[in-house]
Protein: Carbamate kinase
Amino acid sequence: MAKIVVALGGNALGNSPEEQLKLVQQTAASLVSLVTQGHQVVISHGNGPQVGAINLGMNYAAEHDQGPAFPFPECGAMSQGYIGYHLQQGLQNELRRKQLTKDVVTLVTQVEVDAADPAFKQPTKPVGAFYDQATAQKIEQEKGYTFVEDAGRGYRRVVASPQPKAIVEFDSISRLINAGSLVIASGGGGVPVVQKDGLYQGIPAVIDKDKSSALLAGKLAADQLIILTAVDYVYVNYGQPEQKALADVSAGDMATYLKQGQFAKGSMLPKVEACLDFVKQNPQGTAVITSLSHLADALVGKIGTRIHK
Ligand SMILES: Nc1ncnc2c1ncn2[C@@H]1O[C@H](COP(=O)(O)OP(=O)(O)O)[C@@H](O)[C@H]1O
Ligand SMILES: NC(=O)OP(=O)(O)O
Structure:
């Protein structure tokens, strides 16, 4: 039996509730088959598109005197509920189809960050929809948001993304796993909180879920961290004619590619950094990056980028 942390990418979850539900149902089949093989599975997920959409909708209502503004920690918590609901339902229905009984639990998770993290002064985390350059510039001027080009896919708003330091609910996650539950935790990288006078409070940011997933997988001493996104492999020379897929890569070689600037900031870079961090914490462990639809094949090494010591 292996302990596996599976992180689902926010962009890989589609652009609408209908798309997300469909994609989650497909992924649920692979996740449940891991459970039936006897593995302990913990699921985390991204929320970039979803938290951006929630924030945009809430801001729109506030700007039209239809309700209060909702800060990012609250929007992050809502995204955990929305995505967790789809995942819970998808997993429960798949368990029912297989006539299996297992508790499926989404845990609203807070992740502690440092209020002095320099990331608060330099937003890097893409959230929400993709815009063309002219529209992005118009919104920048109107609302004072920052936009960046995101991995050749268009322009997106970026927000602060501090380093995750500690998972507040870690002991509860651990207890639930040991009790046999299928746990969905640390969604959207966790709701960012800081400690003030010994008490927790939310802080506007969106934590990178790959980094929080690596922290969770490391603390759980997981055997595998599997990051599921929209591409089958990590590539060098991505998007260029000489693009090459990486299959089995040592942490040392991956660190070299990283230094060469092969991985785009805000998209593939944090995934690779998270995998290197996990392998450093757990030298016996393996980190895998592949697409949402290829979880089963990735587990047996047929597809995906596998990073090891
Ligand atoms: N070197 C690379 N290899 C593969 N994909 C890359 C690379 N650099 C950038 N990307 C982009 O990164 C995306 C994955 O990041 P992102 O969409 O932020 O992930 P998530 O699924 O977590 O939301 C891929 O779909 C691809 O467009
Ligand atoms: N929070 C986060 O990392 O989301 P994505 O996976 O959507 O980028």
